[in-house]
User: Fold this.
Amino acid sequence: MKSRTFTLIELLIVISIIAMLASLLLPALSNARESARKAACIGNEKQLAMALTMYIDGNDGFGPIGFNYAYDGNWAGPLTWHEFLVEGDYLGTNKYPKYEGSRSVAKCPSYTTLNQGRYSLYTINVYLAGLRKDASSWDHPNRTPRRVDGITAYPSQCVYLSERADTPEISALGWQNSWAVMVMFMRTPSLGYALADRHAESSNCTYVDGHVDNVRNARFGLLHKNLGGPYYNSTLFHIWYGADSGSISW
Assistant:
């Protein structure tokens, strides 16, 4: 009995069907992969939130300093809020996330190519954590840390951590170098203090009460209307200060 073979047209039809199915499935698989990365990123921030809570409990209600550059620029540690957590044994990870594996709690799983060695891919609210510098370093004034356990009016609205944009992410937008964004400011992102909307145009944010939420367009969504954001001063103060008032100078 003579066996039947596929004709060229039949083979082309089968190939076309396979290609069509692949075009339908690949975006769904990509979305599922990113959803998993976003969930892992939320898990990272929850671990960071627990470490911050333990630090606050052990330090009279104060969290780690946002950026500690008060020793004439010798770059000794601890330098950033993340390093304070590591050196105090509140966080079991490497002090230099760039040289740690891709599973580091200091790295977002959606972006593991960290440009700067000692900075986490998560950034802390400078209006809570504070900023300490020497006389010759930045144009920014010192900021006194606030007692985080004293933020009782709007702890579920006050952002403590978010995701920072790394230098290559900023360069691609034509903005300034983002080396300083281990702390986040209430400033226009074009000045180099940008958050990273790397989860389908959204960023994961940790709040003072410890919960983590995904914020759409956080890069501008946490800012004043004058900076391209949606908020006026009253809501802005809730977000950055956990209070009904605060400074909007920077």
Remarks:
- The mean pLDDT is 81.
- Helices lie at 8-58, 81-87, 126-129, 167-171, 218-221, 233-241.
